[in-house]
Design goal:
Structural class: alpha/beta
Largest sheet: 9 strands, mixed
Distance between the termini: 97 Å
Length: 634
């Protein structure tokens, strides 16, 4: 009989609302008898059985009205929460208040049988307790009978975020996790229990405790995400023990009030585990720069360019002119803009920045207020093999865009450079250093009145971004999925990493700060050993027997990247994550003459001659592990 009832109820989506309403009404009437018993004793109950019934049937009108106001009958018993219990208490309190007001009339007080204020209040209290207890019992019964395959978990964090995750996983359908305990850094919480499970300290015994509890997952509160990423030793211990790490939103993304959603709970990625500081920017000033303006983004379909497009579009520019030579990715940007920013007028144009005639037509038609120049060839080995194309696309293309910006009255021009431009050891880095020199010397010429215009040229210089098309992470992921080996060039190679949104955020901040002529250097945080990154990714994947193979440095590759050269110093800005590099100044007329000669040489497609000219323009360019090293000995 019990099994039949269980299967009937728990196979339903929910008990019909009218059944819940009838049950609550029955509880109200039964509570009336209980209250009358305690106030007037058993003799009075047996004497006034029908009077009590009629009296509470009359009062039921007020309870029904309160149930309707608070919609207490629309909840699903098996998913009852504290909010549901509060609604019941509020509804019964309102109904009791209404009954007391009506009881003031002597006619009502003695209708059917006498009723006191104390009885009304007591019956409401009893009804609240019984309604709540019944819902909790059904929820407990349902949870105990569920047969979902679950992972046993601990939650890192005992405050709002941690409790929010605990509530989320308890109500999740289908159930994925079974809560075994909380982990805390707060010594005062040690030895306490929370939501029926133990709170354990985050110390050297944590892994043993989790292993003993057969827990295989650690869920991280939004308020503890940064504490986790700052504690690399803890991460290593968890991964060594085979414990998965799940995170939700970061503290910056979560307002601390709204409910966490199941879709926000995801297994941690390598990007989430790299230590980095919070980046703060002045959103109001950035909005003032772009709101209602015409903004051009070159390289708009690339990793950096596409994120810049998204961030700028959020500030409601009047129009966006998006330039990229890659048709399919540019089409994706077109669809993204139509879907996510339908109110922003966007022109998605497929062309190359090298095509000066086409670019002039675009500038003349749209006259952008601001140009964010992200278009460039960026792969080091590719540019080592194709130095002439590096000159054409990176250098000549930048010259075209910069000259047109001045000609058509652009106010701000932001060029995105790279840390590889510092003491360059490869063609790509040198090409970007030459671009820096050109826009800086052009800005200087404008300020000195040698060239007519008012465009302010600003350069931003930063390192590798996670998740970009050229990042090692997608390559490592593919190699791990195929069973290895994971290829790392050198066991000691290190790189600085930053998330794409963070880097782009600072680019926009630099655009606001810049008065023209500055090279802004971003604080990339702590350097990361690529070999350690590969090992951690292998552990995160759960793959077994995947080896790391060291292949040797590629042509033009450094063991480490620099954001500043030996001759450069920095000046602080009002953002602690951004500094200004003090670099040598160049005469624009001389620079332009040399670059025109370089472009002319590159059209002969003689690699050695082209690179030799690049080395003449940038004397600190010393090739590394490259065929061009012989040029440094001349």
């Amino acid at each position: 009989m019990i099994d039949k009832l269980k299967n009937w109820y728990f196979s339903k989506n929910a008990l019909p609302y009218w059944c819940i309403l009838l049950l609550d009404c029955a509880i109200v009437i039964a509570s009336g008898y209980v209250a009358h018993y305690f106030v007037f004793r058993a003799m009075s109950v047996t004497t006034h059985v029908w009077g009590i019934l009629l009296k509470y049937c009359f009062f039921l009108i007020f309870y029904l009205a309160a149930f309707r106001i608070f919609r207490t009958y629309l909840g699903v018993f098996r998913y009852s929460s504290f909010t549901d219990l509060m609604k019941i208490a509020e509804a019964n309190a309102l109904a009791a208040l209404a009954c007391c007001l009506v009881r003031i009339s002597p006619d009502i007080a003695y209708l059917f049988c006498y009723i006191s204020y104390r009885e009304i209040i007591l019956s409401a209290v009893v009804a609240t307790v019984v309604m709540g207890a019944f819902r909790i019992f059904i929820k407990y019964l349902y949870d105990s009978m569920r047969t979902d395959v679950t992972k046993r978990v601990f939650i890192y964090g005992t405050h709002t975020g941690g409790v929010g995750i605990a509530k989320l996983i308890k109500n999740q359908q289908p159930k994925r996790f079974s809560l075994q305990g909380f982990v805390t850094d707060d010594k005062k919480m040690k030895g306490h229990t929370l939501m029926g499970v133990d709170v354990v300290p985050n110390d050297d015994k944590l892994i043993d405790i989790m292993t003993e509890a057969r827990a295989t997952v650690l869920l991280v509160s939004p308020l503890k995400t940064k504490d986790l990423t700052d504690n690399q030793e803890m991460i290593d211990h968890l991964m060594d023990a085979g414990i998965q790490i799940f995170i939700t939103k970061s503290a910056e993304e979560w307002d601390g009030k709204s409910d966490l959603q199941a879709t926000q709970l995801k297994e941690v990625q390598i990007e989430d585990l790299l230590p980095r500081d919070e980046i703060k920017t002045d959103k109001e000033k950035i909005a003032a720069l772009f709101k209602g303006k015409k903004v051009m983004v070159t390289g708009s379909a690339g990793s950096i360019g596409s994120e810049i497009v998204r961030q700028v579009a959020a500030f409601e520019p009047e129009q966006m002119i998006l330039i990229d030579s890659a048709e399919t990715p540019q089409h994706s940007i077109r669809l993204m803009m139509a879907k996510e920013f339908p109110g922003v007028k966007a022109e998605t144009i497929v062309t190359s920045i090298v095509n000066k005639e086409r670019m002039e037509h675009i500038f003349a038609a749209y006259k952008p207020d601001c140009v964010l120049h992200a278009a460039a060839y960026k792969h080091v080995p590719m540019m080592e093999d194709n130095p002439c194309e590096s000159v054409t696309n990176n250098i000549e293309g930048t010259m075209n865009i910069a000259d047109l910006a001045v000609k058509y009255g652009t106010n701000k021009f932001v060029m995105i450079s790279t840390d590889k431009a510092v003491n360059p050891t490869n063609v790509m880095g040198c090409s970007k250093r030459i671009c820096e020199i050109y826009v800086q010397s052009l800005d200087k010429a404008i300020k000195e009145g040698k060239i007519q215009g008012h465009t302010q040229f600003v350069t931003t210089r930063f390192g590798n971004v996670l998740g970009s098309n050229g990042s090692v992470i997608p390559l490592f992921e593919k190699q791990i999925k195929s069973g290895g080996p994971v290829t790392v060039t050198d066991p000691n190679i290190i790189r600085y990493f930053m998330l794409i949104p963070e880097a782009c955020n600072l680019v926009l901040e630099a655009a606001v700060m810049g008065q023209g002529g500055e090279i802004y250097v971003f604080d990339m945080g702590k350097p990361v050993k690529i070999a350690d990154l590969a090992k951690r990714m292998i552990k995160l994947s759960g793959a077994k027997d995947v080896e790391i193979k060291y292949t040797g440095l590629r042509e033009g590759e450094k063991l480490y990247e620099e954001l500043l050269s030996n001759q450069e110093e920095t000046l602080p800005t009002f953002n602690e994550k951004v500094r200004i590099a003090k670099v040598r100044e160049y005469d624009f007329k001389e620079v332009k003459s040399e670059l025109q000669e370089l472009i002319k040489i590159s059209l002969n497609f003689d690699k050695m001659e082209t690179v030799a000219m690049m080395k003449k323009i940038v004397p600190e360019f010393r090739s590394n592990n490259s065929i061009y090293e012989k040029l440094d000995k001349v």
